[in-house]
Amino acid sequence: MFEQFGVALNQVHLVQTDKPQDRLWAIEQVLQSDSFGALFMWLPEEKTLCNPTVLRRLQYQATRSQGLSFVFRPIRAQMQPSPASLRLCLTAQSSNSLRVHLIKRRGPVLEQAILIDLPRPQGALPDTPHSQELVRALDRPELQTPPQPMRSQIAI
């Protein structure tokens, strides 16, 4: 799948761990090594990995590295605090478009979502009624509009 978007698989390293502490250790080692182009981290809602202290530490280490760092968390995490300067909530608009809500950014609040058309990779399966139903199921109002920040929470 990644090859269809021009990603060389020999440049991709996947680290899977059984224990949350091992995952955190691996992430920190990559960040400290500064020998990566991009780091994609999937963090579950486990308190070991998603508490404010750990997130601040990861964010600090990420700012000291040259590579790009992305943290993916469950959609419910949009209500939880984060030290990240940019926070996005991504949801499927259709099988080939993405709705992006800016939860947190520098500058004024952007209330309207951004819609992005995604290219269909070569060899992708056509839409089916089932895939369209799945997109509609994800198209719930609570996922469309992020909660409006209180005036005291707006970063200027």
Topology:
Blueprint (H helix, E strand, L loop, with lengths): L19 H14 L4 E5 L4 H4 L1 H12 L4 E5 L14 E8 L2 E8 L9 E4 L11 H10 L2 H4 L12
Parallel strand pairs: 1-2
Antiparallel strand pairs: 3-4, 4-5
State the main characteristics.
3-stranded antiparallel β-sheet, alpha+beta, 2 domains, 156 residues
Describe the structure.
By secondary structure, the protein is of the alpha+beta class. It folds into two domains: 1-76, no CATH class; 85-147, no CATH class. 28% of the residues lie in helices and 19% in strands. The protein is built from five helices and five strands; from the N terminus they run αβααββββαα. A three-stranded antiparallel β-sheet has the order 3-4-5, with helices on one face. A hairpin with a 2-residue loop joins strand 3 and strand 4. The longest helix has 14 residues, at 20-33. The relative contact order is 0.12. Mean pLDDT is 80; it is low at 143-156.
Beta-strand level of the residues, as a percent range? 15-25%
Which descriptor suits the 3D outline?
globular
pLDDT < 50 runs, ≥5 residues: 143-156
Q: Fraction of residues in helices?
A: 25-40%
Kindly summarize this structure in a few lines.
The chain is an alpha+beta fold and 156 residues long. It has helices at 20-33, 47-50, 52-63, 129-138, 141-144; strands at 38-42, 68-72, 87-94, 97-104, 114-117.
